[in-house]
Amino acid sequence: MINILVDWKNKNNFFLQEELNKNGFRSVVFDIPDFEIRDRTIKHRIIILYLKYLKLAYRALINSSEDDIVVCWNFNTAIAFGYLCRLTGKKRKIVALNIIAHKKNVILETIRRCICSPIMKMKHCYITVNSKQYVEDYARRFRVSIKKFFVLHDPVQTHRKIPYQFRDSYVFCGGEAQRDWASLFAAAEQLPQIKFVCIARKKYFDPLLTPPANVELHFDTDYETFFRYLRNASIVAIPLKSKLASGLIILLEAALMSKPIIVTRTPSTSNYIINDDQGILIDRKNPAQLRDAINRLYPDRQLQKKLADNLLTFLMEHHSHSKYTSRLIEIIETINAQNPTPSLDLSGNT
After folding, report:
1. By CB atoms within 10 Å of each CB, which of 42, 123, 197, 253 scores lowest?
2. Is the distance from CB of 183 to CB of 287 less than 8 angstroms?
3. What is d(CA 275, CA 251) in angstroms, rounded to the nearest whole number?
4. From CA 250, how far away is CA 98, in angstroms rounded?
5. Across-strand partners of 2?
6. ∠ CA(248), CA(139), CA(250), 5° rounding?
7. H or E, element range at 129
8. Residue 51 to residue 56: CA distance in whole angstroms
9. What is the pLDDT of residues 190-228, one digit of tens each?
10. Which long-range contacts (CB under 8 A, 24 or more apart) does 294-301 make?
11. Do residues 289 and 265 make contact, with C-beta atoms less than 8 angstroms apart?
């Protein structure tokens, strides 16, 4: 059995379970029925959020067996599940998907390593990263073997596609963490003829930053409002502060809406975009490059359509649900080969 832990309220439509079933694997999804978005948006509710992670992990633990594979969509739930395994003495094979741990100051980095490393070092715990270039960095920072890591690229979240349509509206920038708002505001200030709409997570936003007059700034909107602004944008800008994986959810959603994209060049974004063919890549913390890219792309219908169409075609071919699931199955089969369990039968065959 493959047990999938997700950090939201599932409505029995999670693509991973559907794809695993298509491939003949038995699977079950454990979710957070009482999930609330404010648990993520309000700082002091982080304690409540992590308690919900522990509750989720406990439900999965008591309803699984030693033969099972436990796949954690959120890396933090894998840590919670791992500690419960240690406390109860139960053995499970854990696949922690897509670690994202942006570097912090020395004290916080040390605290995080002390919390996460004991679980990451567990014999049956494995981690996926979005790009192979992250493996050595994470292995060094958390002091674990590189053999613990597998590369698994993020998939598109839905197959609902919107054809390209030229819009003379605004540049959209939104997201939860690691957005380089300072560079965006600096670029926007030099493009007063273009409107910008930005949606930020208030708990991560620098209160000392002041948006220029042509920037409409919102905080912590609901999903419906967020995606309405995204859908109505002319182009999407994703300036990032970190080289580690970030911005991919918005990148993939924007691509499915056939939005032309400008994004910071990182190992993860470069997996999806070839510069000037599927989008425009810019250097980190470079407002001048961002300004020039926006000024070039915003009025050019032909270039917008080319970039949007090429990216959408590439994603549907290489980062579909089926491609993602096939790669995850390869990882699971490799783990099982390294740690054989005589009674293990994920497909239910006798």
Report:
1. 123
2. yes
3. 14
4. 16
5. 27, 69
6. 5
7. strand 125-129
8. 9
9. 999 999 999 999 988 999 999 999 999 999 999 899 999
10. 294/171, 294/187, 294/191, 294/194, 294/235, 294/237, 294/262, 295/191, 295/194, 297/235, 297/260, 297/262, 298/171, 298/194, 298/234, 298/235, 301/166
11. no
Give the CA distances from residue 138 to residues 76, 116, 218, in Å, rounded to whole numbers and listed in that order: 15, 11, 34
DSSP for residue 18? H
Is the pTM value of this prediction over 0.85? Answer: yes
CB atoms within 10 A of CB 247: 26
Count of other CB atoms within 10 angstroms of residue 157? 12
| Token output for 60 | 């999965």
Half-sphere exposure of 208 (CA within 13 A, CB side): 1
Residue 229 phi/psi, 5-degree rounding, is: -65, -40
Torsion of CA 50, 29, 93, 152, to 10 degrees: -90
Tokens of 350: 């006798």
Structure tokens at 130: 């979005």
Residue 38 is predicted with a pLDDT of 85
